[in-house]
Each structure stands twice: as C-alpha cells, then as structure tokens.
Automatic annotation (TrEMBL):
Keyword Lyase: yes
Protein name: (5-formylfuran-3-yl)methyl phosphate synthase
Record-listed E.C. numbers: 4.2.3.153
GO molecular function: lyase activity
Organism of provenance: Symmachiella macrocystis
Length: 242
C-alpha cells in the first residue's frame, strides 16, 4: 500500500486548502505552539465539523501538546470524528515513571471524551534536545500500550530532517519492530518532496507534513493547496518507481 499523506492544519480555513490539495489525513495542530502544539479546542471542533458536513473520506487526527502540559491541567473533551490523537513525549526522559504518566494523561483524555481514543505515540528523533525517551523506548512502550501507531518527528523545527538524526539502518529496524506489532508508522520532520523517493523505501504508512504544505516552506505560514498537490505528485511518482 502506498503511504497516506497527512497534512497538519491550524483551523478550518487551512483544512479546506488541505482538502483541495488532496490530503488523506487532516491533522489539527497549532505550529506556533511547538512540534506537537495543540490548537484550541474550538478549532479542533470546527475542523471535525467540516469533515463531518462535507462527508469526505478523510481521517482526522489531532496534536495534544506534550504529556507534561497536562500534569496540572484538565484535558478538554475531544469532539467525535477524531480518528487519532498524538501526545508529545518531550521532557519525560528524567522521569523513571514516564510510561505511567504518559498512560495517565492519555486516560484523562479518554475519560473527558467518554470513549477510547486511538493513540499515535510520538518518538522525537532529536530526543536529546527534546529531553524525551529515545525512539527505541517509545516504540517498545507503544507496543505495550497498544497504540495504533508511532510517529517519528523532530522536536526542533530548525531544518534538520529525519536522516540528520537517525541512520537508515536504525530507521529500518524501528519500522520493522512497529510493523511486527501491527502498528502504523508515520514519519515527519520537515520532509520535502525531494525526500519522498528515499523515504518510501522504508514503507511508512503515513508521511506527515506541515512545512512542505506552507507558503515558502515555512511551517507558520498559511497552507497552500498547490504545495500539497506538488507533494502528492512526488508521492505518486515515487510509488510507481518503487
Ligand atoms: O505531524 C507532522 C508535522 O506537522 C510535520 O511538520 P513539519 O513538516 O513542519 O515537520
């Protein structure tokens, strides 16, 4: 199966542009709040409403900030129609009980929403900068927790991408472990269309972008449908060539 294209949007206006561009998964995120920045719950609900009203065949995911953001705050109730949720792992490394805390916060979101949520575990590949557990630990914890998948992403959005942090054999081994656990693999980290032919060889299930979908490749600029079409064409061409 060729990978699906996830595009992160900050609101319903950007969601329309991402749909026009042909995204497969609409991800809601506020990029000004960090790698896994959570948008306001009103924006999350508005995007979920757009998808429900238009009845398009697109899944919706949402970023929920970092696990540590919720130690002293009550999670809001996520609206129906959210297929996946992602909670960052920055700052968890020094905590020996991080898995329990991570599980506890996810449970709080499920209690607030009054339903089970499909979780995508977040493995920051620049984990030392993020002060998060290393990817290998996250992959093991995700399997133990029964997460739907694992996302490899960069915490720092400074232009360094996936292979600046992980070697190809390392990525291949991690992907194999995740697929062996019957989970999805999502890759992100300022991926550009030129990186797709290399990435597709690792058989990710999802390629996740924000920067490449924005004007001038700047993740805090607005989403452009044309940039997404260009990226989708690169994915299509790479899938044919593979
Ligand atoms: O979930 C994926 C991220 O939004 C990707 O953002 P980025 O392309 O700016 O690294």
């Amino acid at each position: 199966m060729p990978p699906q294209l996830l595009v992160s949007v900050r609101n319903e206006i950007e969601a329309e542009a991402a749909l026009q561009g042909g995204c497969d998964i609409l991800d809601i995120k506020e990029p000004a709040r960090g790698s896994l920045g959570m948008a306001d719950i009103e924006a999350i609900s508005a995007v979920a409403d757009v998808i429900q009203q238009q009845q398009v065949d697109v899944e919706v995911s949402t970023a929920l900030g970092e696990t540590t953001d919720w130690y002293a705050a009550a999670p809001p109730a996520l609206p129906a129609g959210i297929s996946y949720a992602k909670l960052g792992t920055a700052g968890l490394r020094p905590d020996l009980d991080w898995q329990q805390r991570w599980t506890g916060v996810r449970r709080q979101f499920e209690l607030a929403a009054n339903r089970n949520i499909s979780w995508i575990a977040v493995a920051y590949i620049d984990w030392e900068l993020a002060d998060s557990p290393p990817p290998l630990e996250i992959v093991a914890a995700a399997a133990e927790a029964g997460c739907a998948g694992v996302l490899f992403d960069t915490f720092a959005k400074t232009g360094r991408g996936l292979f600046d942090w992980l070697s190809k054999p390392q990525l291949r081994a991690l992907v194999n472990d995740i697929h062996s656990a019957d989970q999805l693999v999502a890759v992100a980290g300022q991926i550009a269309a030129e990186n797709v032919p290399t990435l597709i060889d690792f058989a990710p299930d999802i390629i996740a972008i924000r920067s490449a979908a924005c004007a001038e490749g700047q993740r805090t600029n607005a989403i452009h449908a044309e940039a997404i079409r260009y990226f989708k064409t690169a994915m299509h061409n790479a899938a044919i060539a593979n």
